[in-house]
């Protein structure tokens, strides 16, 4: 192998153990004062990201959009929302990121377009049975006059997954006509992936961004593209995956992998090949690893740790399973505790154990009051869990603001809420706005240094979490992340670990092949430092630790150098 070849090979593997920082562009940094974060705002903070020590940024959608679902309703897959900037701004941002050795991952949303996409407008203007309609899933309704939706499928955001249109062409012009499928909001019509034109167009989109220097893609709802739309449509009153053998009507059907084989050919046209990570909320079975195969997207999220109780047996079991799954797929595994769809983990961990799913929704609805949380404990456990995770083999996905120890903004004024879930459930489920509030950069500046008056209001307590309040402060969460991410580069080695047996039932202890060790005390009481652990080698701790400690404090993780 000559020098060039080895550089390429190394570069091609950059993603395997990368720390990837998710940017929700509208909430990151606002450069033009309109209250909405933008692409130039990202560029202006590349220095901050570089100091933080991440390897890549993943940008949630920045495409033209009416924001019916925070940008996951895409009007045009190959452009930048004018409120966020221009393609030139995008190029400048990629250039600045690359100059700082930071890779760029774009979000691609193939399951649905928006209802303002050219294709959907053409579909509405055309008659039933037309090629324009065949890019989506248009069906006649049930009942004598077609007045009932074609199936009982619900949408993910509440209400039915079907909306009826008023025809504008053909014999029924001006009358209620067909229905179209939208697994999410009605502004997000599902694309028909049986249509070769749809397939081809996404290849064009991938090349468009890869040509502009994008290093990888995050693939939204990757498991939903292929559906069984044969008549009569099957009943499926819940969007749970009811069978995990590939025969579910809507999710995880074998055909999706054929699509991703095609994508892989496109991604491999580039040097280094572009990466992709599937967002596929599928249960843990042998089927899940197919999303991560090198012949497909190459990597997949798993949300197992995110959903697990803070408890050593659960964490150990998940890690073992995910590493085995990664090995079987040929990918590296992924870890994530927070993203733009879930309650921030510092808040989740502040709630009484067992407050998950519907109980978290109820907590949000109560404005974060019921049940009462313990924020200090939440942050302590979040930092311990994060340090446990950052020591693991695989890619770590971090969500903007977690490095500031941000909690969920659970008490946003109702009139400010924007999540379609809030509207589609008749204000019964609050949704995800609380983790999307614009970042606090500077406690003494207007709008906490974000820019203009933010599109979601920043709670007063956000000031305490501002970058300016934490920068250089030894025990701050920001400095903790910086130090962990810096040491992580030394700690990462071959993609494996061995468990070290630990006394008691609250500790989890693992060692990486190069001798680095990670020790977490999941219990509340301090635990004796296990024999053989050299206290003088502790280089990062998730919480306050005595000098040369004899004990691991409760809910604390330590990194121990070889
Ligand atoms: C998953 C995205 O993460 C979420 O934010 C979005 O609402 C749905 N997919 C629909 O695109």
Would you write up a description of this structure?
There is one protein chain. 26% of the residues lie in helices and 13% in strands. By secondary structure, it is an alpha/beta fold. The chain has 3 domains: 5-111 and 196-362 and 372-406 and 450-481, TIM Barrel, CATH 3.20.20; 118-181, Oligo-1,6-glucosidase, domain 2, CATH 3.90.400.10; 494-560, Immunoglobulin-like (Sandwich), CATH 2.60.40.1180. A hairpin with a 7-residue loop joins β12 (498-499) and β13. α6 packs parallel to α7. Residues 1-7 have low confidence and may be disordered. Bound molecules: 1-deoxynojirimycin. 1-deoxynojirimycin binds at residues 69, 72, 109, 184, 220-221, 279, 340-341.
